[in-house]
Amino acid sequence: MALVEINFDGIVGPSHNYAGLSPGNLAATSNAGLTSRPREAALEGIAKMRANLRLGLAQGILPPHDRPDERWLAALATDYGAAATYLKAQALSASPMWAANAATVSPAPDAGDGKCHLTVANLVTMAHRSHEWSETLAQLRLAFADAAFAVHPPVPAPFGDEGAANHMRLCEGHGAPGIEIFVYGESGGPFPARQRRDASEAVARAHRLDPAHTIFAQQSVEAIAAGAFHNDVVAVANERVLFAHELAFEDKAGLYADIALKAPWAEIVEVPAHRVSLADAIQSYLFNAQLVTLPDGAMALILPGEARGNTAVWSWLGEMIAGNGPIRRLEVVDVRQSMRNGGGPACLRLRVVCDPATVDPRFLVDEAKLDRLAAVIEAHWPEEIAIAEIGDPALISRICAARRALLVELELIGLLDR
Ligand code: SUG
Less crowded by CB within 10 Å, the N or C end of the chain? Predict the structure, then answer.
């Protein structure tokens, strides 16, 4: 079977809320305190997956984590009842929905041992995300238990690693060997740089990548300062195309020269800052689109509605499509609830290039399964969470029951006993 790209979307958990936990993520901090709509959020995610299936793309899921994370609170010698309010919020966050931060993935053709490698991200920079890794590891070990895969535990602290959001792959076709670009940050701006070069280098070594086909590039300090807390807010790659903002990288000329050397067939589609400012790129999440290859070979950009709502972005995209570039089609999806926490279409998915027959089928979906998941969400997910409700025991039991119902539907109830 040929290798195909499967997008594994994080299902938005029943505890989705706006606690404003991520400094440097402007959407999350500016929406802090809003009332969230978990049911709507999860159904928006299901609708996005359905739309992608209808485009002929392969689709998988990663279920929500156990929230509140009592294991983490126990390690802090407390529990949900007794914990300080900020710890409650950090223990309850539905942040595992952003599957692009679950792991870094190197497909088999790039690895020295011919396996598809996944390294779980440690997410150590943000407290509410620092405890995701253990359940992510448990899920990935189940989903990718086949000998075709090697699933690695996270790089140790303090070397921050935020997974595929800071990693891009260029190749002539998904199943062909490619070059892998790891984008790291250096401190300097007002916000934390979440991806450390040491972590990226450790992941590349663990994945047995050929240094001749690997690039480490620094994200621009200016982009981080403007609110690009991950590279995937200012750049995205698919097969031979890199789609990036002019100000995404600290040493753009050096990176482009390295790409020309290591991947001479690559095409760079750059959006100039005089057409789309960094602020517009970040507000609209233009680059947090899913750049995908459709079954007919054409490339499509799956954009959040906010990109259509931004005049500078939409007019640039209109001209791009009218021209003769490699990206031929625009698809717009509504993931507004996730966007308010700084998570666009690309944040919600982890790309894995593999033979689908080697993946545990419980992690793959078709439309019929999505219908069943939507029914569980309709029946169990809270309609709203007001920020003052975060300590409410009735809400907590509802959140736990909702997740349990979903795991039963997915036949993944074993995840409860991890
Ligand atoms: O890590 N938001 C996430 C958004 C992650 C987006 N992912 C990618 N760009 N790939 C983050 O900042 C906000 C949660 C809160 O504040 O409750 C949050 O964690």
Answer: N
Question: Which sign, positive or negative, has the C-alpha torsion 320, 323, 328, 331?
Answer: positive
Ligand 1, pocket-test mutation among 12, 16, 36, 95, most atoms within 8 A of CB: 95
Distance CA 110, CA 170 (A): 11
How far is Cα 250 from Cα 360, in angstroms, rounded to an integer? 40
d(CA 353, CA 105): 8
CATH no., domain 4-417:
3.75.10.20
What are residue 177's DSSP bridge partners?
Answer: none
DSSP 78-113: --TTTS-HHHHHHHH--GGG-GGGTEEEE-GGGBTT
pLDDT at position 418 is 64
Structure tokens at 40: 């709507």
Q: pLDDT tens digits, residue range 208-237?
A: 999 999 999 999 999 999 999 999 999 999
Q: How far apart are CA 70 and CA 163, in angstroms?
A: 24
How far apart are the CA of 322 and the centre of ligand 1, in A? Answer: 33
What would the pLDDT profile of 182-199 be if each residue is shown by its tens digit? 999 997 678 989 999 999
- Domains of the chain, by residue range, sit at 4-417
3 contacts: CB under 8 Å, gap ≥ 6:
107, 108, 109, 174, 175, 353, 354, 355
Residues with CB under 6 A from ligand 1: 19-22, 25, 28, 93, 95, 98, 100-101, 126, 129, 165, 229-230, 232-233, 341-343, 347
CA dist 254 and 245 (Å) reads 15
Region 374-385: what's the mean pLDDT? 98
- Rounded to whole angstroms, the Cα distance separating 331 from 362 reads 28
Q: Please report the pLDDT score of residue 189 as a whole number.
A: 78
Confidence check: pLDDT of 105 > 70: yes
Span from the CA of 212 to the centroid of ligand 1 (angstroms): 33
Ligand 1, residues 166, 229, 287, 390: which to mutate, most atoms within 8 A of Cβ?
A: 229
Q: Which ligand 1 atom lies nearest to the CA of residue 20?
A: 16
354 is catalytic: no
Q: Closest Cα partner for 67 from 43, 38, 100?
A: 38
From the candidates 162, 250, 306, 331, which is the catalytic residue?
A: 162
Confidence category of residue 70, pLDDT binned at 50, 70, 90: very high
